[in-house]
Amino acid sequence: MTKFIDLTLNGISTGAIYAAVALALVLIWRSTRVVNFAQGAMLMFTTFIASAVINSGGSYVLGFVVALASGFVLGAIVERGVVRRVENAPPLNAVILTLGLYTLLVAIAGMIWGNTPRSFPAAFSLHGYTVGGTTLLFTPNDTFIVLVVIAVAAALAFLFRATSLGLRMRGAAFSPEVARLLGVRVGRMLTLGWALAAMVGSLAGVLVAPSVFLGPNSFDPILIIGFVAAVLGGLDSPPGAVVGGLVLGLALSYVSGYEGASLVPLAALVILVIVLMFRPTGLFSATKERRV
Amino acid sequence: MTSRPLALFRGSTLLRSLAIVVVAGVVLYVVTDSLDSYRNLQLAYGGYYFCVLAGLTVLAGSSGQISLGQGAFMAVGAYAFCKLNAAPVAWSVFPSLVGAVVATVLVGIPVGAAASRLRGPYLAGATLAFAVGLPALADKFPAFLGGENGLSVNPPTPPSWLGTNFSLERWEAWIACAGALIVAFVLYNLTHSAVGRSWRAVRDDEIAASLSGLRVGRRQTLAFVISAACAGLGGGLLAAVLQLTSPGAFPLQLSLTLLAGVVIGGLGSLVGAVWGAALLVFLPNWTNDLANSFSLSGNVSHNLPIAIYGVVLIGAMLVWPSGIQGALRAIGRTIRPAIASGGGRAAPEPAADKAEPANDEEVKASQP
């Protein structure tokens, strides 16, 4: 029973991280119809920047803020600099372009910081809470992770639903021409969408880094499962991304705890296939009419 | 002007492709004799990469489906080949390769049927999970699939009638290139037949295609299974050439590299698959050589090849979004009229001939 509770709590905290990565992918998909395979490398890069700040004497909070800020800037640069030029090209070109970006960022990080994974400080203690004599695997840092992801998801929901900026961003993504006619600076909105998404991604990087260590390739599995979570929830739906992340976090935690960690990728595949067989566009997607 | 055999040759896709395959076979026979063993081995690598890329380029280019899971189909083919070729079964190389293709088709049918329900990024996500998840099976059944260490087979022995000093590498190059030629022949004929046309119809407009009586799901499943079979053959050839297969040989990066090779070579074109295969064989060596030619610190020189690879991917998409073959076609289109008007004697081609310029070029370019 303790094991079950441990696995559940662990699943919630890893699920929160998958949810953050999935949110980053969904935001980019909604604004530019690009699946950003470079997301994993982008959040790796910003986490390395945070690590450099902390190692040179900055506080954790400063490193955290620097990571988010650099994620925002990196997202804007990537959209403005390269992705804009393939937005109207065939979808595969954007896929290859983001794969190229991924490769380049991994290589640059390796050049600057080396390929040996290094440790990254956690915000709070990594010793589990003690309840009635037994020590749970859930730590104060996990609480921090879950709360931060909830706060970010709530802030994004507020931005998109309740502010004029969010309305303009949705308009620019939904119907660029009409939005442009109504005076929305569509290009800027797309850049802002990427910047916000990259910021959410860099948040996930800082949160997960203490448990996976920090190396050029150490976030690849998280990106893959985050992508699966986004597809599971429906790529168009931010709530879907959060639910998909939590579902996968819990399910994979049980699989890894009861059946062994090597089955995790296979379990992710099975879950995804089962869900997509019944809902080919994810759990939370709106039904689309097809035009002849 | 044209004689009757030539007209027949131009009219029949089957004869034309057969002639190309025969010519290419003869060229390979001559070329492999003069290559050293390392180059022959590289040719063998190119052969199995071509099989996979050709299948993927038909899938993505003609049928319009994305697959990030070709590496997993290669793994199926490679493992099936090793199981059939190694001790208890001990079939010889060619039946084992056929078995590898059959095994991949059996896996490809349910996956393709599932894939035909998915579109765009959802298909990408599902095939990505397939590429990551399937190699994990080897860990689950260590007794049957060899776990992390994988399976190994004996090197294929050249038949005795080829002479005693016929090198192993040359024989491997022959096997891989024979597979590549068969794949090229089958796919060329398929894409130029009613099947290929139905794929393109489904790709361009699913609803229009289904209104004209095509069963969209079945067509897409067929394309997926055929591309899986090509990947399975490629994987079987890989196992035959390397005499080894393990989960580590089929990481996600392999699937992504294959997709990159297809797009950079030129999507939808079999000649593009040749460029892509050449790129996959030579680019790692070139970038390594280039990185080593500068005297740099450890971290930088170790990562420079990866950085160059990334820059090539990004640059290719920004500069030649239609890939190498697309760029060559564009060059050909600008040069050809210039030659025709410069020479002055070439009669203007009839419009009917111009209807399929792409195919003409494919014929010419696939000969070397």
Describe this structure in words.
The complex is a heterodimer of chains A (292) and B (368). In chain A, 72% of the residues lie in helices and 1% in strands. With 292 residues, chain A is an all-alpha fold. Chain A has one domain (2-116, 137-278): ABC transporter involved in vitamin B12 uptake, BtuC, CATH 1.10.3470. Chain A is globular. The relative contact order of chain A is 0.20. Chain B is mostly helical and 368 residues long. Chain B has one domain (14-365): ABC transporter involved in vitamin B12 uptake, BtuC (Orthogonal Bundle), CATH 1.10.3470. Chain B starts with a helix and ends with a helix. Mean pLDDT of chain B is 82; it is low at 343-368. The chains are: A mainly alpha (292), B mainly alpha (368). The interface between A and B is large, with 56 and 49 residues.
Q: What's the arrangement of secondary structure elements?
A:
The complex is a heterodimer of chains A (292) and B (368).
Chain A: H1 2-32, H2 39-55, H3 60-81, H4 91-113, E1 130-131, E2 134-135, H5 140-162, H6 164-174, H7 176-181, H8 186-212, H9 220-233, H10 238-258, H11 264-278
Antiparallel strand pairs in A: 1-2
Chain B: H1 4-11, H2 13-34, H3 37-62, H4 70-85, H5 93-115, H6 120-133, H7 137-140, H8 142-145, E1 151-152, H9 168-191, H10 194-204, H11 206-211, H12 216-242, E2 244-245, H13 252-265, H14 270-293, H15 298-319, H16 323-343, H17 351-354, H18 357-365
Antiparallel strand pairs in B: 1-2
